[in-house]
Design a protein that fits this description.
3 domains, binds magnesium ion, 9-stranded mixed sheet, binds thymidine-5'-diphosphate, globular, Rossmann fold
């Protein structure tokens, strides 16, 4: 162990401690060292009873006897955010909200802060990024009215924030952003890994000991990582990620970790001139001119949390000019696409080897799971054969390596929603179709065993 009051370097992969920075660790990892300051025990929160305050001797409790009262939740005033959090903000919870700069984190946070303050709760918005005037300008733009109990503080020092909390005793605290916050206990600059980690720990202690829910904003890069915020993900209760294309107005809020709810719910918003507006009817949000049927376009559906979401998958197949054919996909995993194309070549006998294949999920959505396989295969088929279906068609199903179709979950709910949106037929695996029947609200259900049958059903 290194001595107190010194700076050491710790490998993020294996935890090895070194007195100096090394390019490669003894465990073989490259560039894995981060600087860490050894804090004297009397100022180190971890050494003072950790995040849960100073406790004398720890006494184990019978798990059976531990109270399981329902979490006390606060309504944030934003339905989509409540949903992603699992039904509202849990008291004393620490929530990390990450996203690229400019995506709208400060906007959703000021709207949340105003929503909570509107219920008469005291809210403290701490910003290290903007002045109080700038925050006011944004609040004027996005909040219908600014509640009395909403306070702002432009501050970057953690100890000052803590003192402000002692005076104000807020019911909700916002830190915008963790990269601008620093603790005087460390010499390193705000935003450094050791500062981010230290402030994360201190905020955790603040949340748990005073029962204040805290929202922490963290900037991440497009690839989704930045050494700092990743190091606090394990200690916060919820990690929310805010994504979207900056030139499009749709924003998706997704939770990657939630100690008080599921991680499968998504929240949808539109960034408008007066801030973020909730998108409640999400199922058709991603569909653009879906009434017109065109070559290479097939509607797919996935079930997100508790709602079906439909979106258009477009494919373009065109003869390759030189060398290897290209396989480019936006929104669909490239390896998954290669697999589907291989099945189409080998099992169905389509000559795709000398064809460039481009796939795009319209609307900037990145659907997860394998339920979109069939729609991708049909879109490629449609573009390659220049075939357009006669009916408005939706397709769901997972494609196996043998060309057979595997059942996907929640198809009954997808069918209901598709029928509501006016789809005339849905192609799906027989195993799903068997449970649903041949027709639902005027929408024909076509059950197919394998990918060949699906192609046949698509064009007939
Ligand atoms: P912001 O919340 O400041 O982003 P972040 O905190 O994630 O960096 O939002 C920045 C962008 O959002 C900015 O480019 C302008 C746009 N915007 C709107 O379109 N409408 C609005 O009402 C607001 C406040 C911002
Ligand atoms: Mg901001």
């Amino acid at each position: 162990m290194a001595k107190k009051g010194k700076t050491i370097f710790v490998c993020q992969e294996c935890g090895y401690e070194s007195p100096q920075w090394m390019g490669q660790c003894i465990c073989g990892a490259w560039n894995s060292f981060v600087e860490e300051k050894i804090v004297p025990a009397d100022t180190n929160p971890a050494a003072r009873g950790g995040a849960f305050g100073d406790r004398p001797a720890a006494k184990p409790a019978h798990l059976k006897m531990v109270g399981t009262a329902d979490y006390d939740r606060i309504d944030t005033g934003i339905g989509e955010l409540n949903r992603v959090l699992g039904g509202g903000l849990v008291k004393g919870s620490l929530v990390l909200i990450s996203g690229e700069p400019g995506i709208g984190k400060s906007t959703i946070i000021i709207q949340t802060a105003a929503g909570i303050a509107a219920e008469g709760r005291t809210v403290l918005y701490v910003s290290g990024e903007e002045s109080e005037e700038q925050i006011k300008l944004r609040a004027d733009r996005v909040c219908s009215s600014i509640p009395e109990s909403l306070y702002v503080l432009s501050e970057t020092n953690f100890e000052n924030v803590e003192a402000a909390c002692d005076n104000l005793k807020p019911n909700f605290l916002v830190i915008d952003s963790i990269q601008t916050l620093y603790s005087s206990q460390l010499d390193s600059a705000p935003g450094s890994v050791s500062q981010v980690r230290m402030c994360g720990n201190l905020l955790m202690k603040l949340a748990k000991t005073r029962d204040i829910p805290i929202f922490i904003v963290a900037h991440v890069t497009k690839s989704g990582d930045l050494a700092g915020p990743k190091t606090v993900e394990h200690l916060v209760d919820c990690v929310l990620n805010f994504t979207g294309e900056r030139d499009q107005e749709l924003r998706i809020l997704r939770s990657y970790k939630n100690r008080f709810g599921t991680t499968s719910e998504i929240g949808a918003f539109r960034m408008e001139a007066e801030g973020l507006k909730e998108v409640r009817d999400i199922s058709a949000t991603f569909l653009e001119r879906s009434e017109e049927m065109s070559e290479g376009s097939v509607t797919a559906a996935i079930y997100e949390g508790s709602r079906p979401v439909m979106f258009e998958i477009q494919a373009l197949v065109s003869p390759a000019n030189v060398g290897f054919a290209r396989r480019t996909s936006v929104g669909i995993d490239n390896q998954r696409l290669s697999m589907i194309l291989a099945v189409m070549e080998k099992i169905v006998g389509l000559q795709l080897i000398n064809q460039d294949v481009y796939i795009n999920v319209v609307g900037g959505l990145r659907p997860e799971g394998t339920g979109t396989d069939l729609a991708v295969a049909l879109a490629v088929y449609s573009s390659y054969k220049r075939a357009v279906p006669k009916k408005r068609t939706l397709a769901v199903g997972e494609v196996g390596l043998t060309g057979d179709l595997r059942a996907v979950q929640n198809t009954d709910k997808i069918v209901k929603e598709a029928a509501r949106l006016g789809y005339e037929q849905i192609i799906m695996p027989v195993r799903n179709a068997g449970k649903i029947g041949r027709q639902v609200d005027g929408c024909r259900i076509v059950g197919v065993k394998n990918i060949q049958e699906a192609f046949y059903a698509f064009t007939s």
